[in-house]
Structure prediction request, 313 residues.
Amino acid sequence: MPESTIVQVPGVHVKSKYPSLWGRSLAARKTRFGILFASPAFIFFGFFYVYPLFRTFYVSLFSWSLLDEPRFIGMTNYLNLFNDKEFGNSVWVSFYYAFGVCIVIWLLALTAALIFNQDFRFRQGYLTVYYLPAVISLTVWSLVWLFLYNPSFGLFSEFARWLGFTDVRMLNNPTTAMPGLIILSIWKGTPVYMLIFLAGLRAIPGDYFEAAKVDGATALQRLWYITLPLLRPVFLYIVVISIIEAFKVFTPMYLLTNGGPGSATRVLSMFIFQNGFQFLKMGYASAASVIFLLILLVFSMVQFRILRFQQSD
Prediction:
């Protein structure tokens, strides 16, 4: 007989595995209070996340300029997006920026974490100074770099002139504008992920390294066979979170280049903002937002698949 089959015996009361929500038992009261205390979070999540999500998909099926009545056009916005070269360029620019930033951040953050995991003089002071960019607002950080990139008196322009280069306009050149924003983001984001790596390194028991030293393992062997395998969950978390955060970037592009020159730095978030609030094409922008969400969901699914594979090892 299958385990899920329940035999009801006349005259015998079978206690349910799940207590009644409206009963007087202690378990029922705990359940009611749990739902009561969790309801503000559910209401907040539903009102500010779930409803806007479905509303965005609904608006994407209309042609709407905010100045007239919405006109239902079905999947036309999605078809137009796939034929829009500017949208394709924004997808490419987003990938270019995301992986240009993330790959370098992973390497630099891990290297810095390995250094700060050692005991040396003034370690806490150096760590505090190194982490300072992470606590500065991204808006303030972007404005500081706007001055650094200024072609007239910026620090980078002065340094370029000292090397013999003249008329250096990094943010005005389609070739150098995105690398300039990537450098800005790497400098801002590396300390954050370094601290996460450092926490992961501190969680590794020191007995493993002591045993490896006794067996004659070199520092490189201890890194490759002990540190990196045990750091894999932290690394997977950083990979997914950093990629998602990189795809969501908006502030540096808005303040420094406004998506230009041309469309060299027009990432997907900038494309959505310009179409929605500058060109007043809300349906078109909403369709782009839905596709943007699907891209992020793909990365999340990859994360769950990798973690599931890791747990089965």
User: Anything to note?
Assistant: The two ends are 34 Å apart (CA to CA). Confidence is low (pLDDT under 50) at residues 1-7. The beta strands are 62-63, 71-72. The longest strand covers residues 62-63.
